[in-house]
Amino acid sequence: MVASLLIPVLLSAVALFFASFLSWMVFQLHRSDWIKIEQEDEFLDALRGLNLGRGSYMFPGCKTPEEMKSESYQQKWEQGPRGIITLFDKVNMGRNLGLTFLYFLVISFALVCLATLVLSPGAEFTVVFRFFALAALLTFLSAIVQHAIWFHNRITGHIIESILYAVIVGLIFGSFWPAA
């Protein structure tokens, strides 16, 4: 039965990829996810001077649980600021777009494999829709993989996208589910 669903798997991945494009480029759900630092030039100069490599850094930071208990760490924590900064290499749009599409393809295929365990050929549209929409919502809402590819963090628009993606997946598989 999985083989008969390869076309909707591909269609689902393409539709999700397009929805992702619309979310970012047309509806701009993520426009206000990040705040510009007013003293950006000074901030960037300071970061360059630290010569940090790619990665996520917590500040104040500590290397051991014992250090976290120290008075100096506690004082830094109380004084602030506190946060996380992620530094990454130049964005490779082709690579990230390819990984995003692959992510959608893998998720669509995994949802089909899951569905074949509980749904029979000929299941009603509403049953198939509800199953796929709920499974997709749980997948996309709890997943940070797609956003980690691009930004290494979670963003507000993700909730709206997750609901949209769930509806898209539910509609596609509900429409293409094999007859009895």
TrEMBL record:
The chain crosses the membrane at residues 6-27, 97-119, 131-151, 163-179. Keywords: Membrane, Transmembrane, Transmembrane helix. This is DUF1761 domain-containing protein.
